[in-house]
Amino acid sequence: MDKGNQSVVSEFVxxxxxxxxxxxxxxxxxxxxxxxxxxxxxxxxxxxxIIDLHLHSPMYFLLANLSFVDMLLSSITTPKLITDFLREMxxxxxxxxxxxxxxxxLCGGSEIVLLVVMAYDRYVAICKPLHYSTIxxxxxxxxxxxxxxxIGFVHAMSQMVVIMQLxxxxxxxxxxxxxxxxxxIKLVCMDSYTLGILMNADTGVIAMTCFILLLISYxxxxxxVCQSSKTGASKALSTCTAHITxxxxxxxxxxxxxxxxxxxxxxxxxxxxxxxxxxxxxxxSVYTLxxxxxxxxxxxxxxxxxxxxxxx
Length: 312
Prior knowledge:
Layout: E1 11-14, H1 21-51, H2 58-84, E2 91-93, H3 94-127, H4 132-135, H5 138-163, E3 173-174, H6 181-185, H7 193-226, H8 230-259, H9 265-290, H10 292-311
Parallel strand pairs: 1-3
Antiparallel strand pairs: 1-2
Helix pairs in contact: 1-2, 1-9, 2-3, 2-9, 3-5, 3-7, 3-8, 7-8, 8-9
């Protein structure tokens, strides 16, 4: 079968999460509420960090960027998932499928690097406090955020260059609710086993390497914290445990999707939901519940709002 590099598939069929109409109606309501919560929660964090002068520091600048990436990551897949619950035939155009892959890996790659940058920020703050303001200047923070987006873009484009050259001419059913590389690779009109391993390895090695580096860095930070004063140790420990929780929530599903795929349909779908919906939802919750400065900023905002309403 010689199809060259030209695709003859104009659209793919998404099998979604389930086939029961009653279950789809229930899931529609659940995911709609989750998506609204994601957008409101992360938007609130970004706005709070912008307007509260007490939060104008490198750590919260990076946190605002993390919330922004989470909103983008969720918006790539969740609105399509919600609207598909209303459709009997769930399809996505070839171009739309490629765009999903591109932007999922762009945002995912950027978030991986951003989490590493946040770990570096905590390392400097805790292990080199006297030089913190010099090392983590505003220009340095902006440069690191730009670097995270650049690395994410290069990673995503390296994947797309390969995928766009593949022939799609036969099966077009994707057993999930959005397009991702491991699923799309299975549909090419050629032996894709080796290619699938290589494509997964490209993402998996990056994710696994960053995950190990993050665990090592936070272990070193926590060891340093244990040797510091009790008050400073308590504050630093609270911040670091919040960061570690987010790292585990983000990297856990990624590792099982790309590094150690289980090839169990319902598990793969659960991991996909966790990666694209639950993680962006949990991030603002983790930082809000465990961060005293965020809580204090919320109290100041509420007090200001109440005073403003009282003076009207």
